[in-house]
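Internal ticket - ligand job 269, phosphoenolpyruvate:
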Amino acid sequence: MNAGHRPVIIAANWKMNTTPLDAAQLANDIAAATDVPGVIRVICPPYVSLESVARALANTEVSVGVQNVHSEPFGAFTGEISAPMVVMFATWSICGHSERRRDHAEDDALIGRKLLRCAEFGLRPILCVGEQLDERQAGRAEETVRRQLELTLAEVRRVGAVLPDDLVVAYEPVWAIGTGLTARGSDASVMAQLIRRTLGDGGVSEGAAQVPVLYGGSVTSATIDEFLAEPDIDGALVGGASLKVDEMAGIVARAGMTAAARWAGTQRR
Ligand code: PEP
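stdout (structure tokens):
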């Protein structure tokens, strides 16, 4: 399997930024500035801005995502938001972001159940994995990411299910998120290969090579090239820079070059 058949995806994670008053305008401006053929664009605003952002993007090709969903569909979970509550507005969901693992003690098994809930309600999941700085420094980055995936896969198997076939994985080294530090493109590429191999070993044998793997961690218009130059990387999950229209324009423009090159590659075959 080569990269030619995988889509190029740029997903914006706005985290806990914007208000319903300014989110729609920002979404609108980003959509207009990033209208590049061949790139799948997703914006994940805070929940309270979902409706206004969905309206703003209704006549564009930009999709709306959420930053998280609960693992249960309904119930006594005060303050939580579930997949069936958001499907009117969103078609994607981030799952297992490191800030949720850190602040809400989300573990790999719980994240596995969230992936399945996404599949049940038609949300395309972006599963985030990545190592801490001390794990990379100790030479255990690959072991960490493999373990995260294996534990998630084990939970999916435990409940008698299979991973969603539209799964996207984001490799996000935790030390690179919001820090201005980035991984090396070559390291991210090694990790993308490991991710597909682990999914393949874990029973996604048919589709593992097709799973898009994004890089996330302080991506900007100045650093995106490092990652998209790697054939194993299929796009980016962008945090801080995704709040800036010019940055998103630059990132998606670079992604458009990769999409065009892949398309040309498939035509030559
Ligand atoms: C993220 O939130 O997933 C992320 C990668 O953030 P940042 O780009 O700000 O590092």
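Auto-summary: The chain is about 40% helix and 15% strand. The two ends are 13 Å apart (CA to CA).
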